[in-house]
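hiii so my PI (J.) wants the whole complex modelled not just the main chain, which honestly fair. so below is everything: two entries, each one labled with what it is. i double checked the lines twice but i was tired so who knows lol
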Amino acid sequence: MKTASLLLLLALLTAGAVSGQEETEPATTEAVPTATFYASIEEAAEATCLPWYNFWDDPNPIVVEFYTDW
Amino acid sequence: MLIDPAVIEFFDNEMALVKVNAEKDTLLAQQYHVSGYPTLVMTDAGGGEIDRLVGYVPPEDFLKTFRNYANGIGTLDDLLSRADTSSDRVLYTEIAEKYKYRGGSDDAAVWYHKVIDTGDPLDSLSGEGRLALADMHRRDKDWETAVSAYQAITADFGDSRVGNEAEIWTAIVYRQSGDTTAAVEHFKAFIENHPDHEDVEYCQKQIAKLTTPPEEKKESEG
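here's the output for the full assembly
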């Protein structure tokens, strides 16, 4: 009995998943391109001081972009 | 601006970009005296400001400005060293504006005064300088000094762009200070004096807002 119930549940879940896949259109979210960025000046400064970063040149200058969501 | 492919490439290859949500990191935004968005501040590794760009500009100008800054061209330090041997008032104005954007009001005032004192006190550069100085008083909420400064500009510059701007700002300062009666009077006077001016509609809207009783305001807002 227990096994039968589990099988039934499994069958229902599988059916749901399949029908769900059929019904739901995959969301087409176009990613907004953006430059690589750091979360803080300290982080950027640390990264630009790494030996492999700008091996031949001076460290890149830091630019802080202040923005709002509105 | 930061989604332009050339700008993205520039940041990926030539700069280290840090993005700061000014609404969340208010302390850092205050520290850099950020008052408009977007503001992009170029700094050294210790966070010391090299220079900044405020507002949106076309990608070509944007790239040119930051490449120049990276090479020490057009920065505040560069302009200050050029001013040592120059009597160019446009250069003085640029220095004043750079200080203003950085929140250095006292330094900005010194350079605006230099613009006014070294040229014709009634030319457009002097007018812009005087408007900027009056605006600093307004931002400091020193209403009385701001009104006097704007009214003096209107008296000196008459029916010109600078004079008209100062006239409207007088009304705005009264509104901001809470003197509704004086604000309405000045907005009305502006309409009477310049019935064909492009800011007449703005003045009419201000008068309507200021003269609508609070109950009606609530109803119309509801």
